[in-house]
Amino acid sequence: MSRQILLTVLAAMLAAPPLAASAERGSISRVDVGFSGRYKAGLWTPVRVHFGSPQGLEGAVLSVIVPDSDGVPSRVSAPLPSPAPPSLLVYARFGRVRADMTVRLERADEVLAERKFAASETVREDTFPPALLSEERLVIAVGRASLGIEDAVARMREPDGRRTTVARLEEAGQLPDRWYGYEGAAVVVLSGAGLEAYAGLDAGDGRIEELAKWVRRGGRLVVAVGEHGDALLAEGKPLAALLPGRFVKTVPLSQARSLEVFADSTVAMPMRAGGPPLRAAQLADVEGLVLAGEGNVPLVVRRAWQFGQATFVASDLDRGPVGEWAAREQFVARLLDWPVKPAETVDEDKAILHFGYTDLAGQLRSALDQFEGVRQIPFAVVIGVIAVYLLLIGPGDYFFLRKLARRMELTWVTFPATVVLFCAGACYLAVAAKGNATLVNQASVIDVDTLSGNLRGATWANVFSPRMQRCDVGFAPRGLPASATLDGELVAGWLGMPGRALGGMNPATPPLPVWPEPYDLQPASGISQLPIQTWSSKSLTARWFGRAGATLEGKLEEQGPIPAGSVTNRLDFTLEDCLLAYGNWVYELGDLEPGRSIRIGPTLPRRELTSFLTGRKLIFDEKDQDRHRATPYDRESVDVSYILRAMMFFNAAGGRTYTRLDHCYQGFADLSDLLQPDRAVLVARPAAADAQTVCAGAAEVRITAGGAPLAHRVKHTTVYRFVLPVLPESSR
Questions:
Q1: What is the CATH number of domain 24-127?
Q2: What does the pLDDT look like over 104-117, one tens digit per residue?
Q3: Are 66 and 93 in contact (CB under 8 A)?
Q4: Class of domain 133-342
């Protein structure tokens, strides 16, 4: 008996892998998704994967597999550096609010480790939090103390129908190391509440530069530092590069009436005699608008930073008089610059049922899904064909063989022949309606900041395939001005549908996956092996950046409420239907040929911007009383240019109150915040040779299948926007 037991134990020991060998293969312990578990569906999200043991992982590749908005698994991969770190940060795009995630370590064809995680509110080792809806706001706050943001959010809860979530990071080292990791953030708040939050960071830290890059490309930033200005804002310190000026020193203030006026508060700040003064970080050489200040100390400065916006607050939000101020949450809400008037209530369920979307991005996606030559077969035709088919294979076949042919045994010939003929007819009908060509509908918006010379581009494209296939898709900006250069950073991915409709990112019933094998999605290199089903489409998007060179030359100065000066076209193509927006005014300039200049001045006809965008007109009612009435926004429109105009100046047109749709998923397209006293925006269409030629500045969609280019027809819409500086009147 003892011998048998010994043999059994020995066999078990031989069958079990050595502990050392198991440890050498490494393991996956947990994942951290988003910002303290907060992130948004349909946008690039930081995912940090922690390894239980990094030993033996040299040369391995980390893959994160999540479903896209259509439920098809997509994969992002990153090689592990040598030696292998205890964790690695990658960026994924979650297509579902509740999505499963597979994390895999591979080397060659060998799977070293694999673990599955599920989105759940229940905290376990194999779960991660569900995503926020794409139409929600996400505020990221860095600092270990409460900044009053949560109270401000509670005070301003859903001012325009949208929910707001605050994610607090205790350390700046938790920030993304790639600018597109902030894609889901509405605003980032950096505070001086605790120097330990910035330990290990300096002015050259890559995270700070990537944050600044995100702001310049359309993000919004708030920096609030007072007492610790010397440690955080001075030259060479972590936050110096984010300032709208040069830090001088920290000064005490005995009053801050301007902050009360800025907050529109009737509650005085507690500035007690003999009490602690307000410690403020003084800046010099300030760029932007000083919204509040005491003497020569700017307290609130807001500047347009290329395509984004940065707000500097010269005081701490968690200490001193501001921290004790009863109106602090109102002050913070003004810093966040959210709308204060409630928007018209929209019944989301009815909107989804009727339109299929509740966001402008959804309307744009639906419009791009209207392909020329691709028709929907009417339901009545389908019912008619089925009825005829049933009549022929049933009573018709019986009558023919029984009454005419008088040979019922021939049904073995007539029945399959009828089936074959009707199948061939159905295929012919489908091909006639859907076509057999690969089609691309795309829309592009090209923004140029003439002051810095930087440009950014965004393209939304729907690809229609007549057959089931996998293909590689890339984006290549073409036709840019001769002097333009790209920085080589193009971020591409799929475009989801916000909401709970069929195909949405929060569906009531998720669709069953048709493609089990994942395709490769890399932010900076495109999409590989993208599957598209027969007679269906895939929605994609891309963003790219570079230097514009000589484009539009604007010499504008402020003259009261209007700009004065000239605008000259330095491009090598004509700009059509030019519109100049400044403050709350818009000027219709017509076409602008290469080398031509247009004078801007008091005599140039102008219209109120909001009235222009909304189609508001002066009318007379039955009582002979005049009033203004806006043309309702058409939520059913498939006019891409019409939808783009609403996206490009969403807030200026009245936001959700006017459109009755959200604009949060692709909110970076809205340049309303740049319509300030020191900025003007010129909007125009580039002239194109013909409808099939990609316009100047648009990103050409390149499709390959089996390594060979796939021929396709393109329909495009391209819009240019030029941000022009307007000098103050005193500088003339």
A1: 2.60.40.10
A2: 999 888 899 999 99
A3: yes
A4: alpha beta
